[in-house]
Inverse folding.
């Protein structure tokens, strides 16, 4: 609880959280204005997909930065040493810190999307289940990238390193991961498609997108071929859960193993 | 006196029993049979037992809660006489049997010149089935199927079989196998229907010269599948969010000489999917924000694409199976508007670009060979993949528009720039001092 309160105080004084939130607010409001022309049925789903496609560019990098700088600040201000000289070890510090981060980022985010739902109510016919899935998708995305950010903050020694690693991670998941899979695509057969599928859904962006689009009933997997059936060997929600657990564990593990207690400007 | 009391008692008993109502509830067929040719039967707000066969010209009008419930053994309402009018009913409970010699429906029409309107149909194999029935009006009906999960176990919303010159107007169809299915049905007119969450919103087989206007298809596996059908007119329809792995807005398969104009294809997996089709005119459509704007197989020849707006698609056009012969991307010197991704110069301001526009892509082979490629179409990595392959010269020309249209100017953007210019002007004129305080001198006013 102390950590959540401390994290909250630090973040409301800083600019990062407010900047991130204001970007998300701006994007969602501008998409709402753009979609006021959607006079047809199902405009709600079109809006959510468009919003997701736009917001997906921002949430990962903002969460990475917030996570990384939050940890790094502890090193910079020497509060990490003070906290660790108590009974805390790094793992328990990181767990509490992560919990604080989740709360501080997710509470304003969810609050905004709740308010946004009220705005949507005036323009479109709502589907609460679809919207809950959308919010859950955004929450999952934020969790993964916050934890990755925390890992970057743990093993970075300078602000420059943080910026470098963050941009690399963002670039990797946006471009490189799929690009590597695309180059393997011609060799995918029924025998190795499960492995390919695991690789595909290892990308949080793809796992979250698939969960969202199938969950809202927009993307249909009707009349699947044998290959595609083998590719989708479990439910999209299970893929997302697997992805979430995998990346949270890997990020947490990396943060503990490679953590550096000192940071410098 | 005793006799009088007994008579009064029996009379009141009969009066209280309300025999007309109970008879109607128990035997609607008997009432229909007892009525004269051309009679009007008004039904009450209650459930009547089916199944019924209408053998004479008549009108049946229900109320908000009038239900005709079938016994699950056949068609709930069979119309076997011409000039029947049905209105304001809920019809439910046809047979769902797929092994019988007949396909059953909520309402099955065998005759001509009937009107069916404001009918809700639930729990039926087909919704309304026109079997060799001509000149009927089917309008303002709502047909609800069992949802996308059940494809084989249910039939179509409107099934038009060997039936000509019918008007199908402003019907809403959800969750059936196909929304509207035409089989050997010619010269029918469909206007303003709204079809969602089906397999194919519209499915044409061997049906010619039908007109299809202002219909909306959303969230179907396929918007409209036109197969083996010629000389159709599809105008001002909307194909929106038909989005699954195999989905499309409009499929033309072995369909020739069709006229497709003024339609909107928005956020589909493929906007238009053309295979083994010839001489189709695709004019003035908006093909926007699809994963693939137009998927054109080499077996398709002599299509004309003109005056279309094809923009913001991940891939605007992909040609598969080799280059198709004689597909034309402009007509009478007017091509298509390819959006901001294809910048143009139009020095003589005639609305036509000064140079041809062509699009190269390397993805065609991958899409052709590997269906999983579709899963990557939303990924930003696709752009890098295309760029790298372009430098390796392993891409091919997908289309060449010799007369591309200059992009339509957005008045919205002009207004925005004008407003922004005004604000900057005002700040520079009136607020220079404040600006300096804020950004210069670290906010100090000195």
């Amino acid at each position: 609880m102390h950590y959540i309160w401390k994290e909250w105080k630090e973040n409301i004084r800083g600019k990062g959280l407010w900047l991130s939130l204001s970007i998300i607010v701006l994007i969602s409001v501008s998409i709402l204005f753009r979609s006021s022309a959607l006079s047809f049925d199902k405009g709600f789903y079109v809006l959510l997909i468009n919003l997701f496609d736009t917001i997906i560019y921002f949430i990962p990098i903002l969460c990475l930065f917030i996570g990384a700088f939050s940890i790094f600040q502890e090193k910079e201000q020497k509060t990490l040493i003070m906290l660790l000289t108590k009974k805390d070890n790094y793992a328990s510090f990181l767990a509490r810190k992560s919990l604080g981060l989740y709360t501080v980022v997710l509470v304003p985010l969810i609050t905004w999307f709740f308010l946004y739902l009220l705005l949507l109510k005036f323009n479109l016919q709502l589907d609460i289940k679809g919207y809950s899935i959308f919010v859950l998708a955004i929450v999952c995305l934020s969790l993964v990238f916050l934890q990755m950010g925390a890992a970057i903050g743990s093993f970075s020694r300078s602000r420059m390193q943080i910026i470098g690693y963050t941009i690399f991670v963002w670039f990797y998941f946006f471009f490189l991961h799929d690009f590597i899979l695309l180059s393997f695509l011609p060799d995918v057969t029924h025998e190795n498609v499960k492995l390919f599928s695991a690789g595909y859904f290892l990308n949080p962006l793809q796992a979250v997108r698939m969960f969202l689009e199938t969950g809202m009933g927009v993307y249909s997997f009707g009349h699947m071929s044998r290959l595609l059936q083998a590719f989708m060997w479990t439910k999209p929600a299970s893929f997302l859960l697997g992805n979430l657990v995998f990346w949270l564990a890997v990020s947490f593990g990396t943060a503990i193993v490679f953590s550096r207690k000192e940071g410098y400007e | 006196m005793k006799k009088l009391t007994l008579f009064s008692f029996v009379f009141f008993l009969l009066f209280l029993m309300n025999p007309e109502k109970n008879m109607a509830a128990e035997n609607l067929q008997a009432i229909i049979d007892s009525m004269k040719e051309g009679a009007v039967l008004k039904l009450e707000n209650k459930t009547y037992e089916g199944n019924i066969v209408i053998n004479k010209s008549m009108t049946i009008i229900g109320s908000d809660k009038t239900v005709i419930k079938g016994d699950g053994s056949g068609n709930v309402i069979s119309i076997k006489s011409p000039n029947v009018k049905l209105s304001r009913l809920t019809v439910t409970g046809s047979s769902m049997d797929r092994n019988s010699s007949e396909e059953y429906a909520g309402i099955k029409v065998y005759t001509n010149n009937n009107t069916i309107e404001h009918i809700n149909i639930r729990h039926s194999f087909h919704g309304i089935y026109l079997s060799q029935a001509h000149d009927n009006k089917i309008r303002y009906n709502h047909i609800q199927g069992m949802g996308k999960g059940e494809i084989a176990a249910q039939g179509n919303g409107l099934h038009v079989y060997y039936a000509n010159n019918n008007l199908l107007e402003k019907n809403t169809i959800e969750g059936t196998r196909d929304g509207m299915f035409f089989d050997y049905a010619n010269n029918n007119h469909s206007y303003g229907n709204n079809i969602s969450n089906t397999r194919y919103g519209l499915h044409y087989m061997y049906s010619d010269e039908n007109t299809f206007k202002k219909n909306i298809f959303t969230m179907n596996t396929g918007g409209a599948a036109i197969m083996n059908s010629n000389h159709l007119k599809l105008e001002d329809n909307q194909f929106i969010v038909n989005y699954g792995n195999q989905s499309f807005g409009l499929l033309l398969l072995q369909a020739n000489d069709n006229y497709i104009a003024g339609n909107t294809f928005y956020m589909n997996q493929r906007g238009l999917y053309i295979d083994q089709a010839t001489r189709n005119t695709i004019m003035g459509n908006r093909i926007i924000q699809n994963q693939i704007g137009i998927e054109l197989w080499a077996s398709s020849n002599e299509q004309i694409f003109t005056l279309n707006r094809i923009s913001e698609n991940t891939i605007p056009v992909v040609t598969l199976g080799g280059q198709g012969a004689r597909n034309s991307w402009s007509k009478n010197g007017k091509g298509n508007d390819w959006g901001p991704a294809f910048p143009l110069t139009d020095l003589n301001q005639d609305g036509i670009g000064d140079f041809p526009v062509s699009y190269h892509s390397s993805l065609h082979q991958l899409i052709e060979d590997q269906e999983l490629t579709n899963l990557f179409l939303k990924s930003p990595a696709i752009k890098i993949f295309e760029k790298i392959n372009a430098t390796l010269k392993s891409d091919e020309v997908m289309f060449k528009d010799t007369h591309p249209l200059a992009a339509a100017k957005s008045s919205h953007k002009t207004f925005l720039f004008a407003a922004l210019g005004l604000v900057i002007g005002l700040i520079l004129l009136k607020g220079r001092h404040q600006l300096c305080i804020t950004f210069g001198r670290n906010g100090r006013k000195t």
